[in-house]
Write a structure and sequence with these properties.
Strand content: 5-15%
CATH superfamily: P-loop containing nucleotide triphosphate hydrolases
Number of strands: 7
Bound molecules: adenosine-5'-diphosphate
CATH class: Alpha Beta
Helix content: 40-55%
Radius of gyration: 16 Å
Length: 208
């Protein structure tokens, strides 16, 4: 399976990707996770990405495209992949099409998880993750077990201001690529409102 997950910040891409990669036995490739790892490791890429990410801006296309194309060329992607958070701009979508064509790889589907804007900020500011397992929780909607609450961390870009900036970027830069994939007949629209279990079932039905 070669799948792209698209959706606004907080739509549930990471939550659903973690569930789906187990079912389909493919690697989860999250450009946000890769960039956060680069920032933590203080690599050259991390230093260049850090400020953009904190502001809620996109990291420049050239950097993200090179990072993602390199990752997709690794051996574990030969059996498929679930791309989460890439492409986010038209330039990224075109670069991905080129890279896949060169490798004679065909995408199975682009899944758009739709969540209305008025639910996004609440999802983002309540998001926490467990640094030990990488699991994503929400203080109200997906409450963590009480014994791990103290070790949970909040992303520094999960403030209301940075979230609104990311949402504006999503509508300006990422929403247009949805049309690009719809024109290719690859787009599956999935309602992202409801429990994570319900959304997972909808995605699996769309992919079946
Ligand atoms: P994304 O990767 O699209 O930014 P996440 O998967 O990190 O989104 O989810 C954002 C926040 O919303 C997290 O705190 C997560 O626990 C919560 N969440 C995920 N799916 C749902 C859902 N179906 N209903 C309510 N909250 C959800
Ligand atoms: P969210 O969970 O809110 O959808 P991500 O974890 O996917 O956010 O991304 C966090 C940040 O990393 C983005 O706000 C952006 O700065 C950067 N980023 C991630 N993926 C990309 C990409 N494909 N292009 C440009 N910037 C990206």
């Amino acid at each position: 399976m070669r799948i792209i997950l698209v959706g606004p910040p907080g739509a549930g891409k990471g939550t659903q990707a973690a569930r789906l990669v187990d079912s389909y036995n493919i690697p989860h490739i999250s450009t946000g996770d890769m960039l956060r790892a680069a920032v933590a490791a203080k690599t050259e890429l991390g230093k260049q990405a850090d400020e953009c990410m904190s502001r809620g801006d996109l990291v420049p296309d050239g950097l993200v495209i090179a990072m993602t194309v390199e990752r997709l060329g690794q051996p574990d992607c030969a059996r498929g992949f679930m791309l989460d958070g890439f492409p986010r701009t038209r330039a990224q979508a075109f670069a991905l099409t080129d890279a896949l064509e060169k490798a004679a790889i065909v995408l199975d589907a682009v899944v758009l998880i739709e969540v209305p804007d008025d639910q996004i900020v609440g999802r983002i500011v309540g998001r926490r993750s467990d640094p030990e397992t990488g699991k994503i929780y929400h203080l109200s909607f997906q409450p963590p077990p009480p014994e791990i609450v103290d070790r949970l961390v909040q992303r520094k870009d999960d403030t209301e201001d940075a979230c609104r900036a990311r949402l504006a970027k999503y509508h300006a830069e990422t929403a247009p690529i949805v049309d690009y994939y719809a024109e290719q007949g690859r787009l599956k629209r999935v309602d992202g409102v409801g429990s994570a279990d319900e959304v997972e079932l909808r995605i699996k039905a769309a992919l079946a």
